[in-house]
Design goal:
- This protein is an all-alpha fold.
- It has one domain.
- Helices cover 78% and strands 0% of the residues.
- It has helices at 2-27, 30-48, 58-84, 87-108, 115-132, 144-165, 174-197, 212-235, 238-245, 249-260, 266-285.
- Helix 2 packs across helix 8, helix 4 runs antiparallel to helix 9 (238-245) and helix 9 runs antiparallel to helix 11.
- The longest helix is centred in the N-terminal third of the chain and has 27 residues, at 58-84.
- The two termini are 13 Å apart.
C-alpha cells in the first residue's frame, strides 16, 4: 500500500513539474530549463539529505551518476518536445514508453508477470496509438519530430528507473544527489560547447530571466516527486513503480487544459483512459 501511495503521489507531482518545465522551455530554451531545474533540484535535495539517514556507498554514487547523465538527456528531450508540441499528447507518450522499458527489463531478468500484466502491456500499446492520433483538423497535432523526442525521453526515463532500482536499499536519496550533480554538470558542459561552437546562434534575445521561476519551481517539484519515486523503488518492485510513475500525465493534461486551453480529442480521451486502465492492470499483476 505504501508503494502505491508513493508511486501515485510522485506521479502527480511529476505531472506538475513537466507542465512547469514545458512553460519554461517555451519562454527560454530546453537546455536552459534543464540546467536551471537540475540546479534547483540539486540544491533542495542536498538541503534535505542530512535528515534522511541515507548511507553512502560506491555503487549508490556510480549508479546515481550514470542515471543522472541519462536523466539530463531525458529532461532535455522532454522539455524540447513540450516546447514545440501539445503537452496533452507528448507527455502521455513519454510516460508510457518510460513504463514499458523497465517492465521489459524486469521480465527479461526474471521478474514474473501474470496474464493480466501481459494484457496490460497490450492495452498500453493501444493507448499510445490513440493518444498520438489526432483525426480532428481543429485539434493540435504533434509533429513526428516531437513524437520521436517524446519516445526518446521515455526510453531514457525508463533506463533511469532501472538504474535507481539497482542502488542499495539503504542508500536513500544518495543516488538522487549523484544523479542531479552529474545531470547539472553534463547539461552545463553541453551548453558551453554549443555556445562556443555556434557563436552566430547564441540566444541573445532570450535572457536568463525568461522562464526562470517556471524552471526553478519545476526543479523543486521534480525533487519531491523524485524522492517519492526513489523510496518506492527501494521498497517495491520495478514494474509496479514504473507503471505508477506512468500516471503522471494526468497532472500535466489537467494543467494544460485549464491554463493553456489545450484541446484533447475524444480518441485521445479514450487513449488516456486506456493508459490509466493499463497502468492499473500492470500494477495489479506485478
Amino acid at each position: 500500500m505504501l508503494t502505491v501511495a508513493l508511486g501515485l503521489a510522485g506521479a502527480l507531482i511529476f505531472g506538475a513539474s513537466d507542465f512547469l518545465g514545458g512553460l519554461a522551455a517555451r519562454a527560454t530554451t530546453a537546455l536552459r530549463t534543464t540546467l536551471i531545474s537540475f540546479t534547483a533540484a540539486l540544491a533542495v535535495t542536498v538541503a534535505v539529505l542530512p535528515f534522511t539517514g541515507s548511507v553512502w556507498s560506491t555503487s549508490a554514487v556510480w549508479l546515481g551518476l550514470l542515471a543522472g547523465v541519462g536523466g539530463a538527456g531525458a529532461l532535455f528531450l522532454l522539455y524540447a518536445c513540450l516546447a514545440i508540441g501539445p503537452m496533452s499528447t507528448l507527455s502521455p507518450i513519454t510516460a508510457l514508453v518510460a513504463a514499458v522499458v523497465p517492465i521489459i527489463v524486469a521480465l527479461a531478468t526474471g521478474e514474473k508477470l501474470a496474464a493480466l500484466g501481459l494484457a496490460g502491456l497490450a492495452v498500453a500499446l493501444i493507448a499510445v496509438v490513440l493518444i498520438g492520433f489526432v483525426p480532428d483538423k481543429n485539434a493540435q497535432r504533434a509533429s513526428l519530430k516531437a513524437i520521436l523526442m517524446a519516445i526518446g525521453s521515455g526510453t531514457l526515463i525508463g533506463s533511469y528507473l532501472i538504474l535507481i532500482h539497482r542502488t542499495p536499499k539503504d542508500s536513500g536519496i544518495i543516488p538522487l544527489v549523484a544523479d542531479l550533480a552529474s545531470g547539472t554538470v553534463v547539461t552545463a558542459l553541453v551548453m558551453l560547447v554549443l555556445y562556443f561552437a555556434r557563436p552566430t546562434s547564441r540566444p541573445v534575445a532570450l535572457p536568463w530571466r525568461a522562464g526562470l521561476w517556471f524552471a526553478i519551481w519545476c526543479g523543486v517539484t521534480q525533487t519531491v516527486g523524485n524522492i517519492f519515486i526513489v523510496i518506492g523503488l527501494h521498497i517495491g518492485s520495478l514494474s509496479v513503480m514504473a507503471v505508477l510513475n506512468a500516471l503522471y500525465p494526468a497532472g500535466t493534461i489537467i494543467l494544460a487544459g485549464f491554463v493553456l486551453k489545450e484541446r484533447v480529442t475524444p480518441l485521445q480521451w479514450v487513449g488516456l483512459v486506456l493508459a490509466i486502465v493499463a497502468a492499473g492492470m500492470l500494477a495489479l499483476a506485478s
